[in-house]
Amino acid sequence: MLTAALSIWYLCRTKAVKLTKESFVLQKRVIGRSLSLGVCSFLSQISLVAAMAAVNNMIRKYGALDPIFGQAQYAQIPMAVVGIVMKFFQIVISVAIGMAAGCIPIVGYNMGAGHCGRVKKLFALLLGAEAFVGVLSLLIVEGFPRQLIAVFGASGESVYYTEFAVRAFRVYLCMIVLACINKAAFIFLQAMGRAFASTLLSMIREVVFGVGLALLLPPFFGLNGVLYSMPVADVLTFFAPG
After folding, report:
1. pTM of the predicted protein model
2. CA dihedral in degrees (161, 167, 172, 176; nearest 10)?
3. How far is residue 128 from each of residues 26, 152, 219, measured CA to CA in Å?
4. Tens-digit pLDDT profile for residues 147-189
């Protein structure tokens, strides 16, 4: 409520935008345009939830079939470890999303002004920045997985916990560079007004590849199949036609 009040106060006082009674009249064209962009973000978030639900279910199912994690005293390790891995992933992907979202107003302005060259240049700069964040994150997860585990308060766990956590970090996030680039591309397409393409690619990543691979790989590779699902999904999405 406080945030909404501050936003209204700011909009009423800004010099760039002057609100009048006519400003609040609903227009089909504006509503349709807003909904097409809003639905994109909505479906992206919902599909991400579906992907995570599939991963969690497969971890629970195939963790119970594992010789080690099928034992009662170690049963919670796979779910706890993947939770830590996803926390780190969320931190990294939030940085990637923040950089891409920061480009939205610049893209909108230049698209409206017809400066497509500037948009292409900005896209190239964004991809370079996203790749840098991804490479830096990759070096951390591949080189210092034990330290990451300690940061999340799991340094005193059993050897099975530590071994699985190291493997999970190194395998599950081995394509985090592509994950950052993919997410930036989705948001950039949305900023360009290509809501359908952005939504389609996001749904392909999270539902077709995210959910599909999480269900398809574990029957062949067991618990490791769940870990393989994310990097494989990121690779396939990166090469998906846009």
Report:
1. 0.83
2. 120
3. 40, 29, 37
4. 888 888 765 678 899 999 999 999 999 999 999 999 999 889 8
